[in-house]
């Protein structure tokens, strides 16, 4: 329920509504409008490659060596973002904050970016879409990208004065997510309404729960 409702203070209660899909309470790090169905990729690690990794020792003997390594990182990042474009990926959903160079090349190649998803939001997206997070760096960064979700739309939505991300995923299960937007004069009243609604939904779940006899 926490991921499927949002409260907006300062608006009349009559402005409350139900929106199909998910509303992520953050703005785009990069927004590139795209029409029709789009492919989305979920990641849980930085897209900018690290100079070292597990069981790898990176030795820098001079400032010149370090500076020489930076263009390689930039080119590898650009190559990966171009690979996303060639694979028709239009949306990158990340549970971590991405480097500025990733956002730059995302804008350059027409890929929208949403950062800092919570673990609960990530798990919910996996449940709805049936996909697993994509590991961007391996032996072959140009391999086929198969773990993509399909979204009917992805667009900004204004909740009060805050810009949020509104995504309509094509669900692979019976669960079709909708987000409840609760409006009211102050946050405290809205939270009370949210708690009352959550209690009502819990009661309905119990009421319609299958009883084994």
UniProtKB/TrEMBL annotation:
Name the source organism: Syrrhaptes paradoxus (Pallas's sandgrouse)
Record-linked Gene3D superfamilies:
GroEL, TCP-1-like chaperonin intermediate domain
What is this protein's record name? BBS10 protein
UniProt cross-references to SUPFAM superfamilies, sorted A to Z: GroEL apical domain-like
PANTHER family in the cross-refs: BARDET-BIEDL SYNDROME 10 PROTEIN
Q: Which gene encodes it?
A: Bbs10_0
Alphabetical GO biological process terms:
chaperone-mediated protein complex assembly
